Amino acid sequence: MSIKTLEKVRKRLEERPEELKRAREDGRKVVGWVGYNVPEEIIHALGFIPVRIAVGGDDRLVEVGARYASSKTCVFIREIVGAFAENQDPFIQQTDFLAFDATCLQNYRAAEVIEYFFKKDVVVLGVPRNFDWDEAKQYFAHEANEFTRLLEERAEAPLDASRLAESVALYNDIRKTLKSIYVFQAAKDNVISWEEVYDLIQAGELLDKQEYLSLLQQTLAELQELQQNPVIEGDDGNSRLFISGSLIPRGDRKLIGIIKSVGGRIVGDDLWSGILPHLDLDIKEISPAGVALAYLNRTPHAALPYLDLASDKRLKKLHELLSESKAQGVIYHTLRYCDPFTFKAKETKNVLAKSGIPLLEIHTEYAGSDYEAMKTRVEAFVEMIKIKSEITEEEGVLADA
Amino acid sequence: MVTISRFSYPEEIKDKFVATPGLKFKDGSTVSSAEIWEFMTKEAPLRFPYAFDAGANNIGRFSDDVHFLSGIKRGYLTLTLKDRVMKQHAAGTPTVLVQGGQAMDAYYAAGGIPVRPGLVMQWARNMEEGLSLRQSETLGLNILESGRRKISIDACNQIAAHAAIDNKVVPIDLIAPFLCLRCSDMSFLVETHRNRVHDIPRYMVDYPVDHENKPWAAEYIAAELRELIDKIAKLSGRKITDEVLFNEIKLENRGRRLATEIADLWWEAENPPTNSTDFFGIAFLANDFVGDPVASVDLLEQSKKEIEERIKNNVKGFGVPDHAKRLFICGSCVGPNAHHAQTAGAIFVGRDDSWSCISVPVEEEGDPYLNIAKSMLAYPYEQRTEKRAEWTAEMVKRSRADGVIFMYQWGCNYQSGVARMISDIVKERAGVVTTFVEVGELGRSEATEQSTNRVEAFIEMV
Ligand code: SF4
Ligand code: SF4
Question: Which fold has domain A26-159?
Answer without folding.
Answer: Rossmann fold (3.40.50)
